[in-house]
Specification:
Blueprint (H helix, E strand, L loop, with lengths): L1 H13 L9 H10 L5 H4 L5 H10 L10 H42 L1
């Protein structure tokens, strides 16, 4: 379900569980009543939209969460946006790397 997906994504993004308690009873209680720390608070370096998506997946009320279809669409859109950003960064970095390699070769030859 969407909540479980949110918990897995949360752990992947933050390297910690949304709720980490000493006993199973405490863990279940936290899942039912507490709100996990926001992904955006724990990982300010992540895209804010990804953090908001994960946080929404972990909403207590299922009506406040994404539907399965919505979360799939949201994650695909975020992935495409990030791929485009990375491609743009790479297009700017490649010429710099080529120039640095060229300069290194010239330095070694002289």
């Amino acid at each position: 379900d969407v909540y479980s997906l949110g918990a897995v994504l949360y752990e992947m993004a933050t390297a910690r569980r949304p709720f980490d308690r000493e006993s199973s009873a405490e863990l279940i209680s936290a899942i039912l009543r507490d709100t996990a720390p926001s992904v955006c608070e724990l990982r300010a370096d992540l895209p804010a939209g990804l953090g908001r998506t994960i946080d929404r997946c972990l909403k207590k009320d299922p009506a406040d969460r994404f539907t399965s279809r919505e979360v799939h669409h949201e994650l695909v859109q975020r992935s495409r946006t990030r791929q485009a950003e990375l491609a743009d960064e790479a297009s700017r970095v490649r010429p710099l790397m080529a120039a640095a390699a060229f300069w290194s070769i010239l330095t070694m030859l002289s």
